[in-house]
């Protein structure tokens, strides 16, 4: 019998082996070591660095949902920020009456219900027309929230949680407490994502994405599959929104605009559509790119010699961030359409096959 710890290459002989979560024991050990490292990481980080990681984890949950809708089912959605907003506002409205471990799932369920409704146009249209339908929902959400007195007309709604099971949450430990909460939720959502998509529903999503008429001929229901994809994607967005509301201690409409939806789409493209690893790498790359561009913009603003070179009337510092975003998306689409995940796949493949035991 072959040593399972020395597995390399792909020599699966049964279908059950082909749909396992982990390919071999080394992957299990790698994931356990990664989780231990993430659990210990805040011990060496400052509050500001933990703050960035919290945003990356929250955005990763939202991008996981977008990857179900767009990456797996092939349904273009530019309204993911609105689904995140639905979850955030649901958590904000129910937080005074319910504990957070109920308000966050409730935000996901409400977002899933709205996602099901928003997905109805996918039964008749696709591609650019479907993208415009989700764009319309995004704009309707922002317009509606901005005019509803119950939602403070888009102004900040406080969401406070000062105590959890006797543990006091204050200014000093706020980021660290939510780091572990968000990380736990992210791990659970990733496990659910993997289990859902490796089964019949995942295969149905891929079949509908590749050819919905062929999927219909094979006995699948393309309409119900598309609605399921929108509902699941919105559910993930709603969960991310609920966590975002508690972490930021407030909900404000500026966090859920079209620009944020485009950013989520950029994270999914840069990370790699339809992949778990890409859903984590994309938000990390875009979030750190934003930080670096902001620092570079500040350096340009306060550097007189650089300001003299820039033509009068050109605000290069303000244009740097959108310019970098657009350039990164175009470059990835041209040179690496499979995103950062493809680099990870090549590295993993090298170590999996090395030193070519079989």
TrEMBL record:
GO molecular function list: branched-chain amino acid transmembrane transporter activity
Compartment annotation: Cell membrane
Chief place of localization: membrane
Keywords recorded for this protein, A-Z: Cell membrane, Membrane, Transmembrane, Transmembrane helix
Pfam families: BPD_transp_2
Transmembrane domains' residue ranges: 21-45, 51-68, 75-92, 98-120, 127-146, 177-197, 227-247, 267-289, 309-335
CDD domains: TM_PBP1_LivM_like
An annotated GO cellular component: plasma membrane
Classification via InterPro entries: ABC_transp_permease, LivM-like
Keyword Metal-binding recorded: no
Membrane topology field: Multi-pass membrane protein
Name of the protein described by the UniProt record: Inner-membrane translocator
Native species: Allomeiothermus silvanus (strain ATCC 700542 / DSM 9946 / NBRC 106475 / NCIMB 13440 / VI-R2) (Thermus silvanus)
Lineage of the organism: Bacteria, Thermotogati, Deinococcota, Deinococci, Thermales
């Amino acid at each position: 019998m072959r040593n399972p710890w020395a597995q390399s290459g792909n020599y699966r002989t049964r279908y059950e082996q082909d749909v396992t979560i982990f390919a071999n024991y080394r992957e299990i050990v790698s994931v356990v070591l990664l989780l231990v490292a993430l659990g210990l990481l805040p011990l060496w980080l400052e509050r500001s660095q933990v703050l960035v990681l919290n945003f990356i984890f929250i955005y990763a949950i939202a991008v996981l949902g977008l990857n179900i809708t767009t990456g797996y089912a092939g349904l273009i959605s530019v309204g993911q920020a609105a689904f995140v907003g639905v979850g955030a506002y649901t958590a904000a409205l129910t937080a005074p009456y319910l504990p957070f471990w109920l308000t966050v799932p409730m935000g996901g369920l409400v977002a899933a219900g709205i996602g099901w409704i928003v997905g109805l146009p996918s039964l008749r249209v696709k591609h650019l027309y479907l993208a415009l339908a989700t764009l319309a929902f995004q704009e309707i959400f922002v317009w509606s929230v901005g005019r509803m007195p119950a939602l403070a007309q888009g102004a900040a709604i406080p969401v406070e949680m000062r105590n959890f099971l006797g543990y006091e949450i204050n200014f000093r430990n706020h980021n660290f407490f939510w780091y572990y909460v968000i990380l736990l939720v992210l791990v659970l959502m990733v496990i659910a994502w993997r289990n859902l998509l490796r089964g019949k529903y995942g295969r149905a999503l891929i079949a509908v994405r590749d050819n919905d008429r062929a999927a219909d001929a094979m006995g699948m229901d393309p309409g119900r599959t598309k609605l399921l994809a929108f509902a699941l994607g919105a559910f993930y967005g709603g969960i991310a929104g609920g966590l975002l509301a508690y972490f930021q201690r407030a909900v404000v409409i500026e966090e859920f605009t079209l620009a944020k939806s485009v950013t989520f789409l950029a994270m999914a493209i840069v990370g790699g559509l339809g992949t778990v690893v890409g859903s984590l790498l994309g938000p990390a790359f875009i979030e750190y790119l934003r930080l670096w561009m902001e620092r570079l913009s500040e350096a340009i603003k306060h550097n007189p010699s650089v300001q003299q070179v820039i033509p009068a009337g050109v605000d290069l510092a303000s244009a740097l961030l959108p310019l970098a975003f657009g350039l990164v998306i175009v470059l990835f689409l041209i040179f690496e359409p499979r995103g950062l995940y493809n680099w990870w796949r090549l590295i993993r493949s090298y170590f999996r096959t090395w030193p070519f035991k079989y």
